[in-house]
Every structure is written in structure tokens, then in C-alpha cells.
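Suppose a colleague, Dr. K., hands you the sequence of a protein chain of 93 amino acids and asks what its three-dimensional shape might be. Before reaching for any lab equipment, you can write down a predicted structure in C-alpha cell form. Begin with the sequence itself:
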Amino acid sequence: MKLPVNRRIDETHHHITADGLSVWYTIQVSPHSRIQEAVFERSDRMPGDEECNRWLALLVTDGEAVEAPSMPGSMTRRFELFERDPEREAPLA
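The predicted structure, expressed as C-alpha cells, is then:
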């Protein structure tokens, strides 16, 4: 799986495991922040904590990703890590 940085998401950022877990991973970078996002999806059920945590440990660096809320009945789980560098942010006017 290629790891995208500031690019449109396409199939190169997607991996399907042998047991059917779809894994998507992206990084968005700006001059003062970075967002890492990992999305896990199954066609038959919600991905479990253990399988998500295994992938998160491999993909998300420099912090702990937080799970974003999902719709009831969804088969998708999304995790995000927002990193800010206050020293590089523009001063407030």
C-alpha cells in the first residue's frame, strides 16, 4: 500500500486483507499541522477493536488516533490524529 501525502485518495491508498478488511490511510499536511486518517471497513460486520488497533499501531505515528463517530448500522470505522505545531502557526490578528 502506498501512503499518500496531500493527494487525492485512490486505490493505491487502499489495502484489502485476506479476511476481507478494507484499510484506507491518508495524511494531510499543511505548514502548521498534519492530519493522519485511517478508515477500516467490512462488508459483513463492523471491524473489531483488535484488528483496527493492530493496523493503527502500524500506520498512525506520533500519537494516539481518536475514533470519529459513525452512523448507526455502519460497517465503517474512522480514526484521526490531528497534530499541530503552534510555533509554525500564523499569529492571531
